[in-house]
TrEMBL record:
Record carries keyword Nucleus: no
Highest taxon listed in the record's lineage: Eukaryota
UniProt-listed InterPro entries: DIOX_N, IPNS-like_FE2OG_OXY, IPNS-like_sf, Iron_ascorbate_oxido_reductase, Oxoglu/Fe-dep_dioxygenase_dom
Family label: Belongs to the iron/ascorbate-dependent oxidoreductase family.
Native source species: Aspergillus campestris (strain IBT 28561)
Stated name of the protein: Gibberellin 20-oxidase family protein
Residue span(s) of domain Fe2OG dioxygenase: 174-279
UniProt keyword annotations, A-Z: Iron, Metal-binding, Oxidoreductase
PANTHER family reported in the protein's UniProt record: 2-OXOGLUTARATE (2OG) AND FE(II)-DEPENDENT OXYGENASE SUPERFAMILY PROTEIN-RELATED
GO MF annotations in UniProt: metal ion binding; oxidoreductase activity
Gene Ontology annotations of biological process type: small molecule biosynthetic process
Amino acid sequence: MGSLGQPMEGLPVAQLDVIDYSRLSKNDTQEVQRLLKACTQEGFFYLDLSGGDSRVLSQVDRVYAFMEEWLGQSHEEKMKNYQTNYTDGYKPTGYFAGVDDKSRDNSETLKVSHKAFTTTPPSLPQGVQKHGDMLHSYLDTASGIAIQLLSALSDGLGLKDSERFEAFHADREDSNSTLVLLKYPYIDPATRNKQVGHNKHTDIGSITMLFTDQWGLQVMRPGSDKWEYIEPSPSCAIINVGDCLRFLSQKKLLSCLHRVVPAEGSTADRNTIAYFLRPSNKATFVDSNGELSTAADWHDRKYEVFRSTHDDQRKDTILTGGLEAEGKLSA
């Protein structure tokens, strides 16, 4: 598996399973079982998209080019699209808690949701309209891949009809599924300031599909107390299970703790394309506090926790999806 960035030797690197999407899309029984194992034991895996219909990889290149152009604008221009909700618009660095205690995050993001395309004309951020077709196409492709994963997991668990995970994701327009383009500006380690990376967390939704061009993503695998880097790959998406899918599966499937920390030896900005598939807003489950919650409520509550101080984050189970409270983590 080829790497896009070359950090210093000696970094701890997670050895994740590689699932072949072309085999999975043909309902290959062995590959379905490999997927189920990855999602019940790890919560993170690589999805090899190089075989079969790999149009998503060429789409990724176009999205990278777009985000370089859009996020390369002046701060004043980008702030004209300051987010008014958690699914669309621009967020500057420092909005969420960072890696270090008392620090803030170091990622600026542009979000474009499925919902943005349901209005006439689409309610897209300024400067995005001319790229609307390309972004809409990517959203549809990413959604299709994520739904295929849900279908395979439903098959692997023997789920039927309304129990199948796809049933909770049927009304895409009535969900908070979104594309998030993240740029982590390079920081010289010698001058590391109070805006660093992205704090530890589990993801809000069901399936996260991520592409990145630099090292920085770290995972703490189940049963471990050590952070390991996830190697970026040009032919694979990095996939992880989110809170909602864990809750909908009655915790048969695992979400996994992760964060973003600048890797030693990195010398460039880190760009990430993340698609977050989330359930229908009306889907219900028992959350990490033992309360009945809708997907929409969990989404909004978790984002408020992301914004909170580290001290406030430690007062609740929401940031890590209950994993720390259940004793499944030691950090």
